[in-house]
Amino acid sequence: MTEEFILDHRSKSYPLEAAPCRAADIGQKGWNVLADDLSYPLAVIRRSALAHNIAWMQAYARRKGVTLAPHGKTTMSPELFAQQLAGGAWGLTFATIYQLAVGVEAGARRAIIANQVVCDADLDGLDMLLAGHNDLRVWFLVDSLEQLALIEDWAQRRQCRRCFDVLIEIGIPGQRTGCRTLEEALTLAASISRSNVVQLGGIECYEGGLARCDSEHDAREVTALVNRVLETARACDAENLFCDDTVMLTAGGSAVFDLVVPLLRAQGLSRPVQGVLRSGCYITHDNGNYARFLKQVEQREGLDESLRAALEVWAMVQSVPEPGLALLTCGRRDISYDLEMPIPMRHAPRGGRTAVEVPADWTISALNDQHAYLRFDPNGPVPQVGDRVALGISHPCTTFDKWRWLALVEDDGAVTGAISTRF
Question: pLDDT of 313-329, one tens digit each?
């Protein structure tokens, strides 16, 4: 397990004058976000929403009869990995060997690398991790004979007798990696079956690139992809190309994860299916992109309640230089902006410890490296210098990677814990 980390003056937003502190002891400081005890901007995770989301997604997977291997790239946090595993996750998903190593250190013993492994250094690293942990099993993606040839060449040059577990990826024309046709996939599967270096554990896809936040469109397109994956799995099964007693079928981004459940519960193969859902952003959810997609999931599934936004970045109003414009102490170095601008959610006047919803007309129009442009109606409620504003985010991944640590807070703003990140 990862050793507990220390917070000190080298940690962004940690008070410069405060003594170094173990993460487990930060709650003893008596700090509160709304007491201005820490510098702004400050990224926080609301503990109640975090616990709810971990439990909710695990219960969803269990109810659907599938297993959960959350994508670790979202948070790259050993502490959050440990919470997901303790909450019942079957394993974890990663995109790189480096990320995998962080997950293994946090206790993961089943992992999917939802990406192709191609270079010598990564194959060396994977071999080392497997050699150092007899109880570790890792599957990675292959999608071409050229990649298979690289792996076999590596094994020959290293004189390595390792046999890696792999999954064939089924891709989408014009988008990311993956076999484009059934014929490609079957040719690759047959070559894998003849190899001494890899063995075929199942079939993988990523459906997120098809999603448009339109249920009719998304259901049609994702179902077509699901059918392609199932066709490939059944053809490989008919040729006895899988290595295990069970066949792994895995998919699942964070936008339309419900639409791939039929794939993960597939019937009609000669052996049982291990369905693995890989959603990652659910752990903190968001207030923008995934919140909109989740409304569609809730409608399709008939849900009254689902995930809650847990991640936000607090900033202070540092200037109101003209009517209708305030500048906040938060910028591109601190918060997501790849999908859309941050979203003002709550407002606490200077000196107060009560946060209320912001007026509907408050928006962020732009970000600089260290500034956010808050636009508002000058005839309505006007932010003042020293006020605090909680910014919601769209796409958790690109907020987490801007912080080496994030505070865990209670609903009243009390700082009671911390998590680290390892980007």
Answer: 999 999 999 999 999 99
Contact 61, 282 (CB under 8 A): no
Token code pair at residue 259? 């639409």
Grouping H, G, I as helix, E, B as strand and the rest as coil, residue 187 is helix
Structural contact between residues 250 and 39, judged by C-beta atoms closer than 8 angstroms: no
What distance in Å separates the CA atoms of residue 126 and residue 103, rounded to the nearest whole number? Answer: 13
Q: Work out the pLDDT band at 66, boundaries 50, 70, 90.
A: very high
CA 349 from chain center: how many Å?
33
The angle, 0 to 180 degrees and rounded to 10, between the axes of the packed helices 47-64 and 78-86 is 50
Edge to edge, the sheet with strand 110-116 lists 67-68, 273-277, 247-251, 198-204, 164-169, 137-142, 110-116, 92-94
Residue written as tokens 């962080």? 102
| Nearest 10 degrees: Cα torsion 251, 253, 257, 262 | -10
Query: Beta strands of 158-197 (E only): which ranges?
Result: 164-169
Give residue for tokens 């938060």: 330
The angle at the Cα of 384, spanning 380 to 389, to the nearest 5 degrees, equals 90
Is residue 309 within 8 A of residue 291, CB to CB? The reply is: yes
Angle at 356 between CA 351 and CA 359, to 5 degrees: 115
- Residue 372 has which token pair? 């956010």
pTM over 0.90: yes
Cis peptide before 41 (omega within 30 of 0): yes
Contacts of 368 (CB under 8 A, 6+ apart): 331, 332
The domains of the chain, with CATH numbers, are 6-46+307-420 (2.40.37.20), 109-279 (3.20.20.10)
DSSP three-state, residue 356: strand
Distance CA 211, CA 180 (A): 18
Is the CB of residue 211 less than 8 Å from the CB of residue 255? yes
Length of the chain: 423
- For residue 107, the model assigns a pLDDT of 97
